[in-house]
């Protein structure tokens, strides 16, 4: 017979700060700790059975039951694992559980950021006192002739040990809940917590509502999947299984684009699946979630010390049994093999992209609209990732083809060597696109939010390459190189038209230039200095729309002397009777050119419409 009272060898002034720290950061961590202890107890018994040191019971099924009761204000965690003897309770509960507490407090005395704590500190069982006024353990060891033990404590330094009426091998931990934590006795609240941490625990977990006496245990289904897809060999998994697992894990009705199945044993153990989701819009790239597991127990989302930052845009799960979780996040950053894990993940992602590019190029181009923001961000954040994927970064052209940077430069070296022309708004810049197409010129489409930064990044990596927006310059390929028969007459017309536009528009800082373009249908285009436009765009990002006044873009109005309308205006520039008409046409030409750059504001649009009506009246 057991009858013992005593004091736990730790002072409350040391343990309470830890409990309080948990209480205000991750209160439901007690569920993870206690159920994890039950899983460990089962694993230990299985191991002893495997080596012949514990008997194998007939029809034995290992499982964990969590029973909640609002009426009794209790939570029970029940397992049929290894159990404990009275001596083991004294050793593991009364002493060992607190062995590292003083060192922990001393080490982290100056740490005030809640995020410094990850949760796994070996205190395990005592996390129960975060939420319980009293904790009771009933346990029976697997050892032959063992006697069941009951241990009770109210969270102070006192405990009581007596005989227990438990008659099966295993352990039951009963929490008598404090008033401020009664929400955990709710069946649905507990179900959510269990699913969060133990959706893939290797032992079945059953959740029981003790207040419903008519619900039989044999009719219940486990809340977890004991064999998640990442545990299978990738060769044995079908595409439909990957998609189904993704939909269930992330409550996403859309199928993922593709995925990477990680299954390795050396130099560290890691299993998992990383999914590339289909995005509705670019902002969704920031909504990814990489779930980190430790022996199939959920630890945290998006731990930046383990998961490279740019991969946090994706979705997936990684199970890393070798990860040191009983340390702080700051310590994780200094772990050499944690860095190796991060680098291995980067390599696996880069390898997958290279395989798609080389073996499934058509699919790769289909995925590109969704994955290119992620790839570009990854290149800018991780040098090693850029080195691995730089040759498979592709660009969609205005002709709906896909080319790499080197392919584009090679194809266009005779027209504009080492210059990449690009479009960032296909609709707004349609006029310029048509000019390029009509002259067999090529430009790439860079219309993602990240592209403004990515262009600068690529220029820094390729010092001889310059990116110019399609409206930044007129390449010689677009100019009419036909030899002039009467250069003096052309020069005179150019001067007249330049003066007329200058005097009529009277716009400060607007540069005016007269050229003969190959495209006769376009009367004028506006060019924006690439450098000033980039400064202007960056200013708007960081300082808002008013930054335009601080960083004005340099505009150049290029008037096409090969256009019939422009030529007619130039030839009648000295005709006083046509002076008013010419001024209307000059303003109209400028506004039409301006429309290719930006929408008009209400006042500008009103003036444009009224002027259009006047011109129409003059024609009638």
UniProtKB/TrEMBL annotation:
GO molecular function, one term: ATP binding
Residues making up the signal peptide according to the UniProt record: none
Keyword Flavoprotein applies: no
InterPro entries: HATPase_C_sf (IPR036890), HSP90_C (IPR037196), Hsp90_fam (IPR001404), Hsp90_N (IPR020575), Ribosomal_Su5_D2-typ_SF (IPR020568)
Family annotation (SUPFAM superfamilies): ATPase domain of HSP90 chaperone/DNA topoisomerase II/histidine kinase, HSP90 C-terminal domain, Ribosomal protein S5 domain 2-like
Pfam families: HATPase_c_3, HSP90
Residues bound to ATP: 33, 37, 79, 84, 99-100, 171, 329
NCBIfam families for this protein: PRK05218.1
Family: Belongs to the heat shock protein 90 family.
Protein name, as recorded: Molecular chaperone HtpG
Protein's organism: Thermoclostridium stercorarium subsp. thermolacticum DSM 2910
């Amino acid at each position: 017979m057991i009858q013992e009272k005593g004091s736990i060898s730790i002072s409350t002034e040391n343990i309470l700060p830890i409990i309080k720290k948990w209480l205000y950061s991750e209160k439901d961590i007690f569920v993870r700790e206690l159920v994890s202890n039950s899983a460990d107890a089962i694993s230990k018994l299985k191991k002893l059975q495997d080596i012949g040191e514990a008997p194998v019971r007939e029809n034995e099924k290992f499982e964990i039951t969590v029973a909640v009761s609002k009426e009794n204000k209790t939570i029970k965690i029940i397992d049929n694992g290894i159990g404990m003897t009275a001596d083991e309770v004294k050793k593991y509960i009364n002493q060992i559980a607190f062995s590292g507490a003083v060192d922990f407090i001393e080490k982290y005395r100056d740490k005030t950021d809640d995020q410094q704590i990850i949760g796994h500190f070996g205190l395990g069982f005592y996390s129960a006192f975060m939420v319980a006024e009293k904790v009771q353990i009933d346990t029976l060891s697997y050892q032959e002739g063992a006697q069941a033990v009951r241990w009770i404590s109210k969270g102070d330094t006192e405990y009581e040990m007596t005989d227990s009426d438990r008659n099966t091998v295993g352990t039951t931990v009963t929490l008598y809940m404090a008033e401020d934590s009664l929400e955990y006795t709710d069946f649905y609240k507990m179900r959510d917590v269990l699913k969060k941490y133990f959706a893939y625990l290797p032992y079945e977990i059953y959740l029981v509502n003790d207040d419903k006496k008519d619900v039989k245990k044999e009719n219940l289904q486990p809340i977890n999947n004991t064999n998640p897809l990442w545990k299978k060999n990738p060769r044995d998994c079908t595409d439909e299984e990957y998609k189904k697992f993704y939909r269930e894990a992330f409550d996403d009705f859309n199928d993922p684009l593709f995925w990477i199945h990680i299954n390795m044993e050396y130099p560290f153990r890691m299993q998992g699946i990383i999914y590339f989701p289909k995005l509705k819009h670019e902002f969704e790239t920031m909504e990814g979630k990489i779930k980190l597991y430790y022996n199939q127990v959920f630890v945290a989302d998006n731990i930046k010390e383990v998961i490279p930052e740019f991969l946090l845009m994706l979705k997936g799960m990684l199970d890393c049994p070798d990860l040191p979780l009983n340390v702080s996040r700051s310590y994780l950053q200094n772990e050499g093999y944690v860095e190796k894990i991060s680098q291995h993940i980067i390599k696996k992602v880069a390898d997958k992209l290279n395989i798609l590019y080389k073996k499934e190029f058509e699919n790769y181009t289909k995925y590109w609209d969704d994955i290119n923001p992620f790839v570009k961000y990854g290149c800018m954040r991780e040098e090693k990732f850029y080195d691995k994927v730089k040759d498979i970064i592709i660009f969609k052209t205005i002709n709906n083809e896909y080319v790499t940077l080197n392919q584009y430069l090679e194809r266009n070296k005779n027209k504009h060597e080492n210059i990449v022309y690009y479009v960032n708004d296909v609709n707004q810049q349609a006029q310029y696109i048509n000019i390029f197409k009509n002259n067999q010129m090529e430009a790439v489409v860079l219309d993602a939010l990240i592209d403004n930064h990515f262009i600068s990044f690529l220029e820094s990596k390729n010092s001889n390459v310059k990116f110019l927006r399609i409206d930044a310059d007129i390449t010689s390929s677009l100019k009419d190189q036909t030899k002039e028969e009467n250069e003096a007459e052309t020069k005179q017309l150019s001067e007249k038209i330049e003066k007329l536009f200058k005097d009529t528009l009277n716009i400060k800082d607007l540069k005016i230039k007269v050229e003969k373009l190959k495209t006769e249908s376009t009367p004028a285009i506006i060019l924006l200095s690439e450098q000033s436009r980039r400064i202007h765009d960056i200013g708007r990002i960081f300082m808002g729309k008013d930054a335009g006044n601080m960083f004005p873009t340099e505009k150049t109005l290029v008037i096409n002397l090969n256009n019939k309308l422009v030529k007619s205006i130039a030839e009648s520039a000295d005709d006083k009777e046509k002076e008013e008409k010419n001024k209307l046409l000059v303003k109209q030409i400028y506004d039409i050119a301006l429309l290719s750059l930006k929408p008009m504001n209400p006042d500008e649009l009103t003036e444009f419409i009224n002027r259009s009506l006047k011109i129409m009246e003059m024609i009638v």
